[in-house]
Amino acid sequence: MLGYATRRLLALIPTLLAASLLVFLFVHLIPGDPAAVLLGDTATPEEVEALTREMGLNAPLYLQYLYWLGNVLQGDLGTSIFFGAPVLSVIADGAETSILLAVMTMVWIVILGVPIGVVSATRHGTWVDQVASGGAMLFASVPTFWLGLYLILIFSVSLGWLPSSGYPSISDDGGLANLRYLLLPSFTLAAPNAALIIRLVRASMLDVQREDHVRTARAKGLAPWKVATKHVFRNALIAVAAAFGFTFAALVSEAVVTETVFSLPGIGRLVVQSILRRDYPVIQGVILIIVVLYMVINLLVDLAYAWLDPRVSLK
Amino acid sequence: MTQSNPPLLDVRGLSLSVATGDGLMPVVRDMSFSLNASETLGIVGESGCGKSLTSLAIMGLLEGTPVRVTAGEILFQGRDLLTLPPRERRRIMGNEMSMIFQEPMTSLNPVYRIGDQIVETIREHQPMSKSAARTRAVELLRMVRIPDPEGRIDSYPHQLSGGMRQRVMIAMALAGSPRLLIADEPTTALDVTVQAQILKLIADLQSETGMGIILISHDLGVIAETCDRIAVMYRGRVVESAETRDLFATMRHPYTRGLLDSIPEPDEDVDRLPTIPGRVPGLDERVDGCAFNPRCARASAVCREEDPGETAFGGGHAARCHHPLEPDA
Predict the structure, then answer these.
(1) How far apart are CA A15 and CA B182, in angstroms?
(2) Chain A residue numbers touching B63 (CB-CB < 8 A)
(3) What Rg do the C-alpha atoms of chain B give, in angstroms?
(4) How far apart are CA B325 and CA A245, in angstroms?
(5) What is the rounded distance in angstroms from the CA atom of residue B146 to the CA atom of residue B154?
(6) Which of A41, A201, A250, B327 has the greatest number of beta carbons closer than 10 A?
(7) Cβ–Cβ contact A223 with B under 8 A
(8) Which pLDDT value is given to residue A259?
(9) What does the alpha-carbon distance between residue B82 and residue B139 come to, in Å, rounded to a whole number?
(10) Do A221 and B120 touch (CB under 8 A)?
């Protein structure tokens, strides 16, 4: 297992290099001049050119890339053109919101997706299963922004139970109670993904249920709940684990929309605003961090895979 | 065969039906047989004749399938299994009665070590510490002649060959010291040489433990080698049953004859292997009279109209046929 993990970690290096190049090139494909955007409509061409030179944007693209890469390798993601502050600290400001949002979303996905999927599979064909499967279908189809707006309408506007937007840090007044600001956004973000997990848990449990080894387990005289948990669910997890990698990718893109709908000061909203401001260093920094996160999560998923299925690491 | 105490297993008038969109369709009709300790009963027949469903019904594994018991009793050591509450029934499964299956490659859970799977069975039925159960598991692996059982116990199923996996299945089946072992095509998926080893192993374990065995196979050769008595099934019915020696000496049912004739013999030089003409009619096809009549060379008008009752020929030999074969002169 350790050797497998090490090999996989080393394999990340070339992938990351390629990803950094792609990120850099794509960002520079965005039309528009950051110096012009920064200086506004009243700037003269001379001023724009001076600022461009000052920011190093007049150098050949490959030099700009190498320069940027060299700094990144030293942990310096550059300085935000808009904020004038180091990119890392700009990202760190949004990180609390986004990390807590991600954690709460994952909690929703697990506590909704797994049990409902299991019940749906074990009560296969009954009205319970039909309600669960129908609900999953509905939530998988509803767009995030629409669901978010309706949740605000119901729980904030009509019932007044939960705040509709913003997020004060948990280190501010209110402490952990401030997490209530993230309840609606995290549920919004979780809904389509939990629906996916429900359907996946149900489908793979039904698949496993038909396998010969489950009949063996029942022939041992095990109680139905032991067969369902130790043999059916345990084996169905192999397929579900793979889905968590994809779920993360979906979360990143949906988080951008959700943070905008709920006006959360998170990284998703930072990306959107930075693109509008042509703030190259911030866009590059955020995307690079997302890429690294995505790779690490997929590595963890693969490790979980090898741990769940003893046939994997030996291949 | 003359014992005063009740038989180990007594199946009486067992009928099974499969639930379809059009209602219940009978798949096993009025099946009766009994089995004593240390005895081996072979059930033979083509695919779809109901032999596996019968074994699943006895074992209690029909739940989750569309097949239902519609009539009959399954008396195991005097108790009717069909009326036992599920919890009582499970206490017998894997303990006093166990089963091995056709596909050793897929019958073990791929994510657990074989030792853990055996230990699970042991601890389900006997209060025992993990380490004691592990010691017992090693003992069981040794009983089924797996080399280096202390090392093998931590293997995963995919690290073992088909024959080894079937040995593991047998070890698991022996965990509760069963009185009855049901073996459903235990050697069908294995190489011929491994087949012989597994059959020998089962026979040896039987003489050690005195368990009764139901061996299900489509292979009359396998059955002939290992069984004391044979029941031949055709389309959900036992069409002939007899002691093995008796059956091979005098076959009464044309279907049994056809099954035997279609086994190739290495020392016989024939151009073409005889086969039974036609095919087994589907469940939804109605056959009046004897179910075998469309494929039978001896069929007459009465065969097409009347379902033959059971004719006894003495010595426990019985067949359902209007025109039973005469003993070879």
Answers:
(1) 55
(2) 218
(3) 21
(4) 68
(5) 13
(6) A201
(7) yes
(8) 86
(9) 33
(10) no
Q: Please state the rounded mean pLDDT for residues A117-137.
A: 89
Residue with structure tokens 């920011």?
A: A55
Distance from CA of B93 to the nearest CA of A (A): 5
What Rg, from alpha-carbon coordinates, does chain A have? 24
- Touching check for B64 and chain A: CB below 8 Å? yes
Measure in Å the smallest separation between the Cα of A138 and chain B Cα atoms: 29
Q: Taking the model in full, what pTM does it have?
A: 0.80
**CB–CB of B94 and A223 under 8 A?**
no
**Residue A162 in 3-state DSSP?**
coil
Query: Cα(A133)–Cα(A139) distance, rounded to whole angstroms?
Result: 10
Residue B63: predicted pLDDT:
83
Q: Which CATH superfamily is domain A88-308 in?
A: MetI-like (1.10.3720.10)
Question: In angstroms, rounded to a whole number, what is the distance separating the alpha carbons of residues B86 and B71?
Answer: 18
Top-confidence residue, A31 or B22: B22
Dihedral Cα A222, A228, A229, A231, nearest 10 deg: 70
Residue numbers in chain B where pLDDT is lower than 50: 1-3, 329
B93, closest residue in chain A (CA to CA): A221
| Ranges of each domain in chain A | 2-73, 88-308
Q: Cα(B164)–Cα(B145) distance, rounded to whole angstroms?
A: 9
Identity of the amino acid at B64? G
What b-and-e string marks burial along A108-121, b requiring 16 or more CB atoms within 10 Å of the CB? bbeebbbebbbbbb
**Extended strands (E) in A35-123:** none
**A153: its two tokens:** 């309408």
Q: Are residues B178 and B122 in contact, defined by beta-carbon separation less than 8 angstroms?
A: no
Which residue among B120, B156, B158 sits closest to A220, beta carbon to beta carbon?
B120
Count of CB contacts below 8 A, A vs B?
Answer: 68
Has the ipTM of the complex gone over 0.90?
A: no
Q: CA torsion sign, B113 to B114 to B120 to B122?
A: negative
